[in-house]
Every structure is written in C-alpha cells, then in structure tokens.
C-alpha cells in the first residue's frame, strides 16, 4: 500500500527538500504541503493522509496544538520534526499524541524508513535517539512535576504489561524487549497494544514518556 503523507513545515526550502526525498520512494505519496499549523489541520481534514510530518514550531498554530487537533479528530498519525532543542514543544507534541519524532538533519534513507515505521504502527523510532531524548527529559524535569501522571493509571496493567511499559520507557524496540523479557516479538506487540489501550494512549512514545514520569 502507498503511504499518503502531508508535509507541514514553515520553511519553504526545508519543506521542498522533505517533499523531494519522500517523493523519491515508490511506496510514499506526498498528498499535500502546509506552511503553518492551521493549514496542516485544514489539509489533514480534507485529505485524510496516513501520516502528517509535522514541524513543532510553526506560525499561526504551533505544531503541538496542530498535532493535538489532528490526533483528537483521528485524522492521521503524526511524526514530529524537531531540531532536538529538547524544549517543551517536543514533549508537548508527544503528549498530544504524536506517534514519534525525527531530527531535521536525518539522512534521506532514515527519513523514509521512519515514515514507513510509523505507518506500520511502530511509533517508537530510532531507539538510540529516543533513549537520549527520554533520558535528558527525565533528568531535566522532576518526575510528576507537571502533575499530569497519576500512578493509579497503572493499576489496570498486569505484571507483564508493566515490565513492557518499563522497557518502552528505556526506548527499547519490540525486538529488544523480546530479548530482555524472553518472549516472542509477536507477544510483545500484543502487550504493547493492550497497555496502550488500557492507559488511553495513542503511541509508544506517549507510553515511554509516561513510564519516565512515573519511574516505571
């Protein structure tokens, strides 16, 4: 199946480069371009892409708010673009339901693979980068300082699901979790799906941030 992508980036040159790279892949189709957050939401409603490649800092409506609207309306998955400033925009977008994040200086091949990864439902991309992001976030922000995470939300999880959640908090991939917990990768996928549903989360990245906040 062709992956239909909407590119939302306010810098025209950067946006053109992203479109060029994405269009080079036979299994990816760029169905629209947006130069600000409001346009991104409007086009997502009209085009219903599979994925929105979303810059976090845009005019008129920032990427966090745009992501929240796109996810809340079930319009598409969102892959966040960041310069790795580690500011509140990045984590706000992840909490808003973004399925993953990507550095703007990522190589073309990695960009294409990231889009395919998110399209497959594997929201946590580039585990090594994810671990660094989560670690820096956890080190810079006292756990539960924002008051957004309540330990009681974990009560519905089984022991195994808690273990899987802890692995997500470390940025592990399904294959790495399978090795760590000595289970089949397919079983890991099942546990991830169930814990996301129980916790009311849309992405593995949201689960990873929650795990860090609660110290799972």
TrEMBL record:
Residue ranges constituting the HTH luxR-type domain according to the UniProt record: 150-215
Q: Which residues form a coiled coil?
A: none
Domain (Response regulatory): give its ranges.
4-119
Q: Which SMART domains match?
A: HTH_LUXR, REC
Q: Which PROSITE patterns match?
A: HTH_LUXR_1, HTH_LUXR_2, RESPONSE_REGULATORY
InterPro entries cross-referenced by the UniProt entry? CheY-like_superfamily (IPR011006), NreC/VraR/RcsB-like_REC (IPR058245), Sig_transdc_resp-reg_C-effctor (IPR016032), Sig_transdc_resp-reg_receiver (IPR001789), Tscrpt_reg_LuxR_C (IPR000792), WalR-like (IPR039420)
The alphabetical list of record keywords is: DNA-binding, Phosphoprotein, Transcription, Transcription regulation
Record-listed 4-aspartylphosphate modification sites? 55
What protein does this entry describe? Answer: Response regulator transcription factor
Species the sequence originates in: Streptomyces rhizosphaericola
């Amino acid at each position: 199946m062709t992956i239909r992508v909407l590119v939302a980036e306010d810098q025209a040159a950067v946006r053109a480069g992203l479109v060029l790279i994405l269009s080079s892949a036979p299994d990816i189709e760029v169905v629209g371009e947006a130069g600000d957050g409001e346009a991104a939401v409007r086009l997502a409603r009209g085009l219903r892409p599979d994925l929105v490649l979303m810059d976090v800092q845009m005019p008129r409506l920032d990427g966090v708010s745009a992501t929240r609207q796109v996810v809340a309306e079930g319009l598409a998955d969102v892959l966040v673009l960041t310069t790795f400033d580690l500011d509140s925009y990045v984590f706000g977008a992840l909490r808003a339901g973004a399925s993953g994040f990507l550095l703007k200086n990522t190589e073309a091949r990695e960009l294409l693979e990231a889009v395919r990864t998110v399209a497959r439902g594997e929201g946590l991309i580039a585990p090594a980068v994810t671990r660094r992001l989560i670690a820096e976030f956890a080190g810079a922000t006292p756990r539960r300082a924002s008051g957004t995470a309540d330990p009681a939300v974990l009560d519905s999880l089984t022991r195994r699901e808690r273990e899987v959640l802890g692995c997500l908090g470390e940025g592990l991939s399904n294959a790495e979790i399978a090795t760590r917990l000595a289970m089949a990768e397919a079983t890991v996928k099942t546990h991830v799906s169930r814990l996301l549903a129980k916790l009311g989360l849309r992405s593995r990245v949201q689960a990873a941030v929650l795990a860090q906040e609660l110290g799972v």
